[in-house]
Amino acid sequence: MQELTDVKNRIDELIKTKPARAVLLYEIFIAGCYEKIEEIDDSGGDLGQFAEGLFCSWVKARQAMKADPVDTIRRLLTWIKNDDYGFCYKLEEETTKVLNKNGLKAFRAIIEDGSLTKINAIKTKSAQEQQQIPYELQNDISTLKAIYREQCDISSYCKLCEQTGYQPDDCETLANIYKTRGKFDAALEWVERGLNLSAQDKSIDFCNSSLKVSKRELLKKLGRNSVALESAWADYRNCPSSYSYEELLRYIPKKDKTIWHQKIVATLETAPLESAIEVYIITKELNLLAKRILETKKDQLKDYSHYTTQPAAEVLEKACPAAAAKIYECLGFRILMKGKSKYYSFAHNHFQKAKNLYESQGLVKDWQKIVEDIRENHRRKSSFVVDFERITSGMGTREDPTFYKEFKKECKPDEWAVYEPHIINLLEENEDDVQSIKIRLHRNEYDLALQYFKKPRQRPTYCFCYEESEILSVAKALESRYPDEILLFYKSNVGNLNSSSSRKTYHYNAQVVERVRRMYVDVMNDVDGWKKYALPIKQSNEKRPAFQEIFNKVVREWEQL
């Protein structure tokens, strides 16, 4: 996708100077997406999100060439009507964010002309009743709301909601309009109304969190910070997490931070460990984290996702090796018990780390219990046991750099001359295996290790997965030698930044963009290159508060751009 994104960026540059040419190129590009969609696996939705960005850029180019806005909207609606692949799903709402004043006026006239009579004939007051409205009419209602929102037309928005029923997200939209006008009291009233609606109908509780955040922001602007702090503290106690912790910090006075730190940490003692782990890490209370880990039963730790426990193991390796070893042990057994052979190499790595850490602390018996357990209960998993026995003997796995080093050390020069060609063949056969790439690094074969990063790959779905956590350490080792190639690799892992997504997706994208920033600024010393890359991203997402909030927290100096 990165190659396609690079081409689109080049076309985007034509909007200001040659908009008519840009329009033609976007249309060719969009046609190409439809032509190729049946030839590829787009289960991740990357091509669909990319196509959405093309449509929005096409609208921008049409506006730049002073095209008739009515014709632009009608052509866009024709695309939407004939879309069989979901490229245009919710495109009407996304388009309103890039339309200018005349474009919004034309869009409004067309939708109102076709649907307003039908809308005026309905009377619904609840989310359940709203589900009975025909899909096409629901879509027109959502489009009109988006248009009224962009036009800041409170009167029309409220009139439409009186017909179809207010929902919490409607209240939040109206609150945001009043907030942009500096009418914080009116905004707070709408937020309160949205929270009441959310409390009445648990099926629409998804708006509750953002409404609470908005309420606290408004309370602070109205000089009622103590009330906002009390609300944030209640949410944190109810569910300690990195998000609730960071939200709480926004309202704690600087002079009281030490006292509040003690209260926050004290709350973690009784909080569920799975949610408390990330707060322990953020607050750097590693001794307390280690204590909780050591007190927790292994069966319970095995139930926790590796997205939660693996970061804890990594930060505890030096602070408390015994606790880290316990986590790595549970991580290894978690994979082993699920019988997913494709992840056995990661289980081997976890057990190798557990062995090293246990032995470093003189806890040999703990390691021996692992060995006995696996030999007794998992001996039939032959694809796992072979390399596990290498770990127990101190040789490491076959692909692991540790084994490679030990094996070479044991060989005499004439023996190594015989074995080395076979090892090289194995590396070539497993060129996409992370451990093979690590061995390439150990052999100083940097060019060969780099080949992995030059290949097109599907973007990872999650921000912390086994494969990615391993390969990023290799990429970092190559940054200074091959900055351009590694920068391109990082960019290729950035998802679509031109459409609304979940907070989790925003957080993943922010982590990747932070790596891009580090390459530009810290490695390549190219601040202008970073600004040229980042500013369009920031500007195109100005109307996505969750996006900006998360990027401000994760990407250094994002707010100063």
Q: Can you lay out the helices and strands and say which pair or pack?
A:
Blueprint: H1 2-12, H2 14-17, H3 19-36, H4 46-64, H5 69-81, H6 91-95, H7 101-120, H8 127-130, H9 135-151, H10 154-164, H11 168-180, H12 184-200, H13 208-221, H14 225-238, H15 242-249, H16 257-268, H17 273-283, H18 286-295, H19 298-303, H20 306-319, H21 321-338, H22 344-360, H23 364-377, H24 382-392, H25 401-410, H26 413-429, H27 434-442, H28 446-454, H29 466-478, H30 483-492, H31 503-523, H32 527-540, H33 545-554
Please give a structural write-up:
With 561 residues, the chain is mostly helical. The protein has a domain at 272-380. It has 33 helices and no strands. The two termini are 26 Å apart. Mean pLDDT is 86; it is low at 459-467.
Main attributes of the structure:
33 helices; 561 residues; mainly alpha; 0% strand
**Low-confidence runs (pLDDT<50, min 5 residues)?**
459-467
Count of discrete alpha- or pi-helical segments spanning 4 or more residues: 33
Major β-sheet annotation: none
Q: Give the overall shape, derived from the CA principal axes.
A: globular
- How is the quaternary structure best described? single chain
Number of strands: 0
Integer average pLDDT: 86
Strand content: under 5%
DSSP helix fraction: over 70%
- The SS-based structural class is mainly alpha
* Distance linking N and C termini: 26 Å
Rounded to the nearest angstrom, the radius of gyration is 28 Å
